[in-house]
Structures are given as C-alpha cells and as structure tokens.
Amino acid sequence: MHTAATLLLQQGVPARVVMDILGHSQISLTLGTYSHVVPELAQEAAERMGSALWG
In this predicted model, which residue has the larger pLDDT, 12 or 54? Predict the structure, then answer.
C-alpha cells in the first residue's frame, strides 16, 4: 500500500482520491502517513505555477 500511495501522489492523483483508494476515513491519515511526498509535490506545483505565470 505504501508504494502505491506514494506513486499515486507523485503522479498527481489528488490526495482525496488516494485516501479513497487506501480506505482511509480521514485525509489527515493519508497526508500524515505519506507526508514525505508532500514537499516533492509542492516543488512541482511551484514550478508549474512559475511556468504558467512567466513561461
């Protein structure tokens, strides 16, 4: 499950969808357990925003 969740999050699958796939009842459980992926996603989001705004 850990690998699947990590890969899903890295592929941009919304955390809410990952939560449903894993059967978690709360998003905090999903994000707390897989928080090591979040900084990576934040960096990618920042890069995408930069590209959208400044090319």
Answer: 54
C-alpha closest to that of 6 among 16, 27, 15: 15
In the chain, the amino acid numbered 21 is: I
| Cα distances (Å, whole numbers) of residue 49 to 8, 22, 43, 45, 53 | 21, 29, 10, 6, 6
Place of tokens 């459980």: 29
| Residue among 6, 54, 3 nearest 31 (CA) | 6
Q: What residue type is assigned to position 45 of the chain? A: A
**Global pTM?**
0.70
DSSP, collapsed to helix, strand or coil, labels residue 11 as coil
